[in-house]
Write a structure and sequence with these properties.
7 helices, 41% helix, alpha+beta, 174 residues, six-stranded antiparallel beta sheet
């Protein structure tokens, strides 16, 4: 389970925690659950190598906005992922993302159509349900509302899906 800096416990899996422990990460301003590293060694490694060195696998999609840096988005089993901006000259700006941070960024980049690819290796149906549910809700919120609610929304949707799978949803008392 992800613990990271303690701000978003459980908002990702053990793989995300492994990446967290491998480098120093600093939260991006006004981007809850999204972190970057200034580690020059990490910034010189393509995402496949950075993750490969740690024996981390991810479901990855590539996105190339016209006139902008190429972006690689990788999601880890258990939640969370790595989003990398590929700059000229072999420089990579890696952002470690909690599950809710990754969902918000996918929404912001309008990459929801790639959700099935990113979720293909996720073994927990509750994580898939929460991810898809969040992506369905976020377009109706302002940016401030997205930042304020995505972590809690993802947690409650995941818990509700788990309860449903276990046949315990009837025990919920609103």
């Amino acid at each position: 389970m992800f613990y990271g800096d303690g701000k978003y416990p459980g908002d990702g899996g053990a793989v995300l925690e492994k990446l967290w422990r491998s480098h120093r990460w600093k939260e991006l301003r006004n981007c809850p659950g999204r972190y970057t590293t200034s580690d020059s060694e990490a910034r010189g490694k393509a995402p496949a190598r950075l993750l490969g060195d740690l024996k981390i696998l991810s479901a990855t999609v590539e996105f190339a906005p016209e006139g902008k840096d190429r972006i690689l988005v990788g999601r880890f089993s258990g939640g969370g992922g790595l989003l990398t901006y590929c700059k000229d000259g072999g420089v990579y700006v890696h952002t470690l993302n909690t599950e809710s941070g990754l969902i918000r960024k996918i929404d912001a980049l309008q990459l929801s159509s790639y959700a099935a690819t990113l979720l293909a290796a996720e073994p927990m149906a509750a994580n898939v349900a929460a991810f898809v549910g969040c992506l369905a809700v976020l377009p109706y919120l302002t940016d401030a509302e997205k930042n304020a609610s995505a972590y809690a929304l993802n947690q409650v949707l995941r818990d509700a899906a788990k309860w449903w799978q276990e046949g315990n949803l009837r025990e919920l008392d609103p």
